[in-house]
Structure formats: structure tokens, C-alpha cells
Amino acid sequence: MSSHRCSAIYLANVSLSPAASGLS
């Protein structure tokens, strides 16, 4: 279950902060 939750957070983070993904 944790895996699904982590994926959701990751997708939301990328969508909300696309620039952060570039920095990382």
C-alpha cells in the first residue's frame, strides 16, 4: 500500500513542481 501512496505523491510533486524535477 505504501508503494501506491508514494507513487501518488511523486506524481503530484512532479506535476506541481516540474522545475524541481529538473533541479533533481
Description:
- 88% of the residues lie in helices and 0% in strands.
- With 24 residues, the chain is mainly α.
- The chain is elongated, with a radius of gyration of 9 Å.
- The mean pLDDT is 71.
Which residues form runs of ≥5 with pLDDT under 50?
none
Share of helical residues = over 70%
Largest sheet: none
Shape: elongated
Mean pLDDT: 71
Element layout with pairings:
Blueprint: H1 2-16, H2 18-23
Concise overview:
The chain has 24 residues and is mostly helical. The protein has two helices and no strands.
Core attributes:
24 residues, mainly alpha, 2 helices, 88% helix, 0% strand, elongated
